[in-house]
Amino acid sequence: MSDVDVCVVGAGFAGLTAALRLKRSGHSVALLEARDRVGGRTFTVSGPDGLWIDRGGAWIGPGQDAILRLMREFDVPSYKQYVDGRAIMVTGGKQYRYKGTIPLTMSPWVVANMGAVFAELGHMSKSIPLEAPWTAKNADKWDRITLADWLDRHTLSEQARTLLEAAIAGCHTSAGSEVSMLFALYQMASGGGPGFLLGVENGAEDARPVGGMGAISGPMTTELGDAVHLNRPVRRIVQDDDGVTVHANGITIRARRVVVAVPIAIAGQILYEPMLPVDRSFLHQRMPSGAVIKTNLVYRTPFWRDDGLSGQSFAPGSPATLTIDASTDRPQPGVLCVIDEGPMARRLTKLGPADRRRAVLASVAERLGEKVRTPVDYVEQNWTVERYSGGGMMSHAPTGVLTEFGPALREPCGRVHWAGTESSAVMCGWVDGAVRSGERAAAEVVAQLV
C-alpha cells in the first residue's frame, strides 16, 4: 500500500493534466493507468525513420487555449493542416471536386437545404448554456428527440440529410438515431458552433502539434516520474471517513481524494463502495462510447498534392467515409488518414483484417487513384474494440440522459472527483476539453485539501 494525497485514475490527457497540476501545487500523487502506455484516446507511435503517427486524437484548433497552453509549457510547436488543392465529396452516385465548405456544383436545392439547416443549427447552439445545457429553454423538447429525428423534420432533400447526418453524428462516432439532439447541440456549442465542429481551416482540424500528441503527453509523463504506474487497471474504490482506498492490479493506493479520469462507460466498470449516488451510477450506464476505426496510410510522398488535391474527401456509406492529409510537418513521407465511424466502423469490425484493408484501399482508390493501393505502411487503430476506452472517441448521450442525469457529469461524489472530455463545458469531445476537465478536477481537489 502506498499513501498519497491524491490518486488519479487514467493517464489520458485529463488524468495527466490533473496529476501534473496537483503535483505542481505541492501535493503527492499516484497516477494509475490500465494500459501499458499513457495518452488514453490519443496514441502517438514513432518508427525507426522518425515518422510519427497519431492513431487517436490528433488535431487542435483556435480557441483551444488549454491544450495550447500545455504546448507552450513544454515548448511543443504546431503546424497548419494542409488544405491547398481540391477536396472530394461522393454523394448521390457522383464525385465532386471542389474548394470551400461544400461543392456548389451539386443540386442548388441540396446546397440551399444544407445551408439553411447549418444556419439553424448555429442559431440553436447559441441558446445552450455551456455549464448546464439541461437548463436551456428548449432542453426538454430537444432531449426527447434524436439528431436523426430532427434532420428528418428539417431536411427536404435526402441527399442533404445523408451528408449532414454522417458529418454531425460522425463527430460522436455514432449513428444519428443514437444521439440526443440536445447533446449534439451542446457539443457544437462547446466548440463555438457547427462551423468549428465540422471545419478544417480555422476549425477543429486547423493544426497539429509537431511530433503528435505524444510530444505533449511524453514530457508530462516525464515530469510526473515515478508517480505514474502503468498496467494497473483499477478494480475498486472504497471511501471512508478519513480517505479513499484504490485497489488496482498488483497495487493499493491510500489517498485523501481520488480523481477518476477515464471514459464514462469505463468508469462504470469500477466497483465503488459505498455505491455512488443513483444519478451518477445511472449516468455510467447511459453514456456509451461510439465506434471508430482510424487508419493511417503511409506513402513515399503525398502524391495527391501533386494531383491538385488536399487529401480531404467525404463519402458517406463507403468503407472509407472520411480522408484527410495526416502528413507531418516535413515534405515526406505522405500520410493519409482514413476515418470510419458509427455503423460503418461496426460493419468493418466484423471483417477480417485482410478484407477490411482491401475494402478501405479500394474505396480511397476510387477517389485518389491507383497509387492508393500500394502504401508503404498501413497502420490501423480500431478504437471500437479498445478495452480501456469502451469505444471511441467520446461518450455520447442518447435521448433523455442530459436532462435527467446531466448535473451528475461534474458533481463530486464524496471524495471521488470526475474528469474527462465529456465533463468539460468547453470543447467537450476534444483533447482540449480533456485538459480543461483535468484542470477543473485538480482545482476542486486542491480546494478540499487546504
TrEMBL record:
<dbReference type="Pfam" id="PF01593">
    <property type="entry name" value="Amino_oxidase"/>
</dbReference>
<comment type="similarity">
    <text>Belongs to the flavin monoamine oxidase family.</text>
</comment>
<protein>
    <submittedName>
        <fullName>Flavin monoamine oxidase family protein</fullName>
    </submittedName>
</protein>
<dbReference type="InterPro" id="IPR001613">
    <property type="entry name" value="Flavin_amine_oxidase"/>
</dbReference>
<feature type="domain" description="Amine oxidase">
    <location>
        <begin position="13"/>
        <end position="445"/>
    </location>
</feature>
<dbReference type="InterPro" id="IPR036188">
    <property type="entry name" value="FAD/NAD-bd_sf"/>
</dbReference>
<dbReference type="InterPro" id="IPR002937">
    <property type="entry name" value="Amino_oxidase"/>
</dbReference>
<keyword id="KW-0560">Oxidoreductase</keyword>
<dbReference type="InterPro" id="IPR050703">
    <property type="entry name" value="Flavin_MAO"/>
</dbReference>
